[in-house]
Design brief:
By secondary structure, the protein is of the alpha+beta class. About 30% of the residues lie in helices and about 25% in strands.
Length: about 160
């Protein structure tokens, strides 16, 4: 059974965004927190120290509101990247555009995967340098490629 793209676009999963292999964004929790609070001063931000101190092994959890929908995200310094949970393709596209415009240094790329893509063994893919609808279309194609569209994980 195959789903229509507009139905796929409503499915929610975790999207993971990272620098391409061999690149870095120079991600720093303080800068990411400042950028989130610039969007919304009341945004939820928490840094959990790992076993080895304030940076190594730590994670930053945050909330971000996109398209009127409150999403939860997490950032790691090692491996470097940012994820958002329970996103539709449109919300993920809006998030990655904000990430690319505000967080990722000019000239750096962004690659992505999803929770379903990781489970299916899919390689990370480049986020197209394109408009939100084209990015969302790339995310729909990725979700189709996972083969997870009839499974229980795809419930809305």
């Amino acid at each position: 059974m195959s789903m229509e793209p507009e139905n796929i676009a409503r499915l929610r999963t975790m999207y993971i965004f990272t620098p391409p292999p061999g690149q870095t964004w120079g991600l720093a929790y303080a800068r990411l927190e400042a950028l989130l609070r610039q969007r919304n001063p009341g945004e939820f931000v928490r840094v959990d120290d790992g076993d080895e101190g304030p940076v190594r092994g730590s994670a930053m959890h945050f909330g971000i509101t996109l398209d009127g929908e409150r999403l939860e995200g997490m950032a790691l310094l090692a491996p470097e990247g940012v994820s958002v949970q329970g996103c539709t393709v449109g919300e993920a596209a809006a998030f990655v555009l904000w990430l690319r415009d505000e967080v990722v240094p000019a000239g750096s790329g962004v690659v992505f995967n999803t929770e379903w893509g990781l489970e299916a063994g899919l390689a990370d893919a480049v986020v197209p340098d394109a408009t939100r609808p084209r990015i969302a279309a790339a995310f729909v194609a990725h979700l189709e490629e996972t083969g997870e569209l009839d499974g229980p994980a795809s419930s809305e």
